[in-house]
Amino acid sequence: MQPEIAGFALETFTADGTTRPVYRGGAGPAVIVMAEIPGITPAVIAFARRMTDEGYTAVLPQLFGTPGRAPSRGTMLGTLARVCISSEFTLLARGRTSPVVRWLRALAADEHRRCGGPGVGVVGMCFTGGFALAMTLDDAVIAPVLSQPGLPATLTAKHRADIGIDAGEMAAISERVQAEGLCVLGLRFTNDRLCPAERFESLRRGLGENFRAIEIDSSPGNEWGFAPAAHSVLTEELVDEPGHPTRAALDEVIELFGSRLR
Fold first, then answer.
1. Residue 24's beta-bridge partner residues?
2. For residue 8, what is the DSSP state?
3. Are 7 and 196 in contact (CB under 8 A)?
4. Across-strand partners of 5?
5. pTM for the structure as a whole
6. Which helix (H) or strand (E) segment is 216 a member of?
7. Are 141 and 34 in contact (CB under 8 A)?
8. Phi first, then psi: what are they for 103, rounded to 5°?
């Protein structure tokens, strides 16, 4: 039985021959929130609720995992094992867009029709981080946020610099972003090996001044006490207190949506 999330309606959406559960809450322009591994955790739900509080329809597609379950080593490894064998996700190949992005683009277009407004905001996290940029190939998406994009896996120097998007699609996205003056927001911790600095350098080269990077110091001995493995800027590592760098990153996300979706 599909779990419930308080304050969110459970629906389904079908596109590209696939039907998936989708949780929707709030009202206003749509913001699609794509979870990190292991899925729609309590921290991801809290972020989505923040979006509804800001006056948006928060849309959480269930791409993997069990909604509402807290992250643990077991849930992380179990979910990762399942997505590794799924044909919907491209974990290792460079310069390839994950097939699931076609479904996500259709979801964004549908939410734009339902919710109205100038367009849709999207947030991808870790495993889904690059999906937010890949979805920008659809005109409905006008405010993409890439929080610690983690695909492809950082096996080699070329993998670390890769964005996980087909070269032809990336060229079209770059052209659109620059022609329309879209802002692509990227978030990462500086010591994050899952989302290395080389990946953000590739985004800067591909998107120019339209890519805004927020890189939070997590080097050894950093003043905020972030662990060397700090990774999830908007969820697990978020400290929702004024003046904290993760809260400042969250405020940047809210400001981007406010400027583009209102």
1. 9, 59
2. B
3. no
4. 8
5. 0.97
6. strand 211-216
7. no
8. -65, -40
